[in-house]
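Write out this protein's structure.
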Amino acid sequence: MALLTGGAAIAQELPQPSPSSVLNQKIGLTDVEVTYSRPSAKGRAIFGELVPFNEMWRTGANLNTIVEFSTAVNFGGTEVPAGKYSLFTIPAKGEWTIILNSKTDMWGTGNYSKVNDVARVSAKSMSVENTETFTIAIENLTAESGDLSLSWEKTKVNVSIKVDVQARALKNIEAAIAESDEENIWKVYRNAANYYYNNKIDLKKALSYMEKSLAANDESWYSYWLQAEIMAELGMKKEAVASAKKAIESGEAASKKNGSEFKYTKMINSGIESWKS
């Protein structure tokens, strides 16, 4: 008993020299998660010395770094399916090799096999201000892309991640329409029309969605206004003016009923005047 309690008494939690970290970032409709350990430079020269050039590096510390994509992506020019991958690099002067490997339970590079590579791409390295602790980030974020950034000491490397947002969004629209109940279908159709309109995909289909939305619910001023914008874009200026006037009527009626002011009359009238001219 004394031996057991003595052992329990000396158990202690201590800070790790390379603490673990998790990065989560959404690119478009794709979730990207990176799990890695973060060593610090501590005054040491890193690339070319602590991390040799032209040799495989675990790209962090402890267990191998893991990158997970919720959908298929284009990683540095290579198509990669959705899934979880280990990340390795081969640093070199001026250019690195970045590797995604399907085996994810390795400690370091000991059990690495090129047979399991799903992507092997080249990326230019750049000189930056000192980064004391190894850092992985997603930079230069847009709706369809981002850069996986690796920074440590005075070196930084970026690899592009591109996603097909539109194809996934259109599938989501179809699924939402199929699954929506009668009460909310007008919102689903309007959201679909809004996406088609804002991304200039198929304006005739956007207008069709708005017609279905208004057939299900004709009390929303914004629905008439969105329909007017789509009509104007299609060159249907007369019809756009009529729909915009309905937007004002609907908005002012709803505001009067609620005892509030309808704040969009000026904006809509501006649209009407531009279409009339």
